[in-house]
Amino acid sequence: MDQAPRTVIKHPRSAYLIVAFVALCCTAIVRGPLQAAVYLVPLGAALYLARTATIVDAAGLTARAVFGSELVAWESLRGLNLTESGAVYAVEQGGTQLRLPCIRSTKLDPLVRASAGRIPDPRA
Fold first, then answer.
1. For the Low molecular weight protein antigen 6 PH domain, which residue ranges apply (predicted)?
2. Contacting residues for 77 by C-beta, under 8 A, at least 6 apart
3. What is the pLDDT of residues 12-71, one digit of tens each?
4. What is the arithmetic mean of pLDDT over 58-85?
5. Across-strand partners of 73?
6. Taking a C-beta distance cutoff of 8 angstroms, is the pair 89, 72 a contact?
7. How distant, in Å, are the alpha carbons of 42, 46, 81 from that of 87?
8. Residue 58 CA from chain centroid, whole number
9. Which pLDDT does position 1 carry in this prediction?
């Protein structure tokens, strides 16, 4: 049986440049050890960038967040909901919607390709 490849769709690596810039700006206001807690802001942002992703594999779509993840199996996937703000939700047969991180309605190509035909191209 041929196993579908696992595709991980994440934020672009260039987003870490913003985190580095925020950390550099924090350095300007840190004057003592207690104020060093300000560095938790860029640290949290880096953790968010490193952890959040949408994973497409043979089991289905997995939305991975900073704390936890949730799977929508291919069998229970009814379709996608594209909002006006650009967010993309996976809709299950029961009507439950799951927000897919790192996926925007203008950037659906990686998701459509990774699904191996299970998600049709909405522009076709």
1. 51-121
2. 60, 61, 90, 91, 92, 93, 118, 119
3. 999 999 999 999 999 999 998 899 999 999 999 999 999 999 999 999 999 999 999 999
4. 93
5. 60
6. no
7. 24, 21, 8
8. 18
9. 43
Which amino acid does the sequence have at 2?
Answer: D
Residue 121 has pLDDT above 90, yes or no: no
- Cα 25 from chain centroid? 26
Q: Which residue, 64, 98, 56, 65, is CA-closest to 79?
A: 98
| Residue 13, phi then psi, degrees to nearest 5 | -65, -25
| Cα–Cα distance, 118 to 34 (Å, whole number) | 52
State pTM to two decimals.
Answer: 0.84
Instruction: Tell me if 92 sits within 8 A of 106, measured CB to CB.
Output: no
